[in-house]
User: Which sequence fits this backbone?
């Protein structure tokens, strides 16, 4: 008996939703359903959103890079001037070791005008920073602005040239800018300068603010109208303007000597380095940007460093140096025999220090005897005029000079 079969109609299908491709694989057999149209739209918009986010991020990153890069002032004139005197310059040191001249300018141009008026500009602070080839240590050597030196032929801004002459050190910057200062340092030390950085008052204050200030300890209150500084005694954190006044003050802190001011500047920079490293600034983009913005906004440098990449490579190579190996010292010097208001080098201490740095050999610093009241004049920490030789504890640590490290905070 034949059964009568009635075909039950299938529910209607929407185009594209579970339809099988005609004439293609799976046209007559079971196959995966197609993705509904609204899901395609959702995925399309999601993909476009992700692409837009990536492009926006890339655009923002490029904008940040371009801004920081454009902050830096390039000084190609200095390099042209140095090339003219190449035959007089010292030979380069060992590969990978670098010597960077750090110059704090007292220029009153631009935003620096609020700090007073000055004819021309002078190097308010100068440090020779030696970065060891293995990047396991860094040594910053302060050069007193009143140190008597031989200033070579230098080109003035108007194109005329100065004759070689004995003068106090900061006269070199006033006469011929960074090129004259670099050649004076090279003549003084026998060390070739690979790079230089000039930062002004505004740049310094912004740098301190970018790391939320630096802690200092004052044994007594300070009121110094010339340095625009009024501070209570005790432990406190200094920000921009107060920090600048603290490192510039002479008459109201210590014994009023430039010697103690340099030592104060060294301790302050050491505390700044320690704070940057301990707070992980270099590894935290949100904290790194304001520091980079502040550092680059008032910076003038040679063409090799005049880019964010150049500065980053320099900083990146030093970020693993322990704070105990970031050293600060002043050139061994004593009262100038012809003028008690000037300084001169103490030999053989100074020659030994320069020789070690030129050859990328180690030097060691130790707190000077009686630090804090009297200027340290010689390489072994005594304050008399005898050219005593620094002690040599071991060949691996090199000769010892009075100084400090970034590991020792100002309040320690």
Assistant:
């Amino acid at each position: 008996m034949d059964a009568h079969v009635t075909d039950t109609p299938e529910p209607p299908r929407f185009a594209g939703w579970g339809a099988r491709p005609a004439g293609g694989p799976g046209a007559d057999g079971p196959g995966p359903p197609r993705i509904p149209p609204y899901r395609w739209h959702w995925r399309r918009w999601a993909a476009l959103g992700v692409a837009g986010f990536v492009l926006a991020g890339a655009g923002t990153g490029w904008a940040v890079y371009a801004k920081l890069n454009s902050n830096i002032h390039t000084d190609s004139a200095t390099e042209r001037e140095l090339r003219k005197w190449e035959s007089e310059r010292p030979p380069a040191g060992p590969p990978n070791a670098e010597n960077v001249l750090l110059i704090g300018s007292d220029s009153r141009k631009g935003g620096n005008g609020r700090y007073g008026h000055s004819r021309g500009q002078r190097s308010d602070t100068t440090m020779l920073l030696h970065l060891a080839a293995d990047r396991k240590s860094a040594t910053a050597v302060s050069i007193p602005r009143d140190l008597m030196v031989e200033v070579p032929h230098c080109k003035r801004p108007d194109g005329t040239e100065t004759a070689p002459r004995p003068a106090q050190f900061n006269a070199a910057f006033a006469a011929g800018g960074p090129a004259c200062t670099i050649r004076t340092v090279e003549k003084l030390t026998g060390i070739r300068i690979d790079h230089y950085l000039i930062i002004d008052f505004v740049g310094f204050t912004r740098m301190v603010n970018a790391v939320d200030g630096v802690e200092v300890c004052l044994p007594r209150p300070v009121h110094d109208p010339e340095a625009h500084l009024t501070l209570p005694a005790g432990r406190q954190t200094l920000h921009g303007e107060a920090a600048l006044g603290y490192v510039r003050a002479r008459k109201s802190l210590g014994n009023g000597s430039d010697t103690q001011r340099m030592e104060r500047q060294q301790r302050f920079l050491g505390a700044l380095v320690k704070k940057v490293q301990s707070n992980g600034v270099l590894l935290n983009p949100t904290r790194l940007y304001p520091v980079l913005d502040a550092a680059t906004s008032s910076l003038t440098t040679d063409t090799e460093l005049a880019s964010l990449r150049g500065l980053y490579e320099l900083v990146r190579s030093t970020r693993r140096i322990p704070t105990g190996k970031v050293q600060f010292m002043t050139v061994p010097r004593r009262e100038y025999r012809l003028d008690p208001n000037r300084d001169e080098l103490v030999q053989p201490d100074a020659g030994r220090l320069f020789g070690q740095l030129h050859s990328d050999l180690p030097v060691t610093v130790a707190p000077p005897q009686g630090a804090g009241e009297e200027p340290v004049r010689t390489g072994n920490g005594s304050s008399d005029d005898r050219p005593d030789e620094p002690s040599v504890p071991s060949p691996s640590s090199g000769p010892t000079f009075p100084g400090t490290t970034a590991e020792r905070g100002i309040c320690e």
Q: What stands out?
A: Residues 1-27, 53-60, 110-117, 372-393 have pLDDT under 50 and may be disordered. The first helix runs from residue 37 to 71. The CA atoms of residues 378 and 386 lie 8 Å apart.
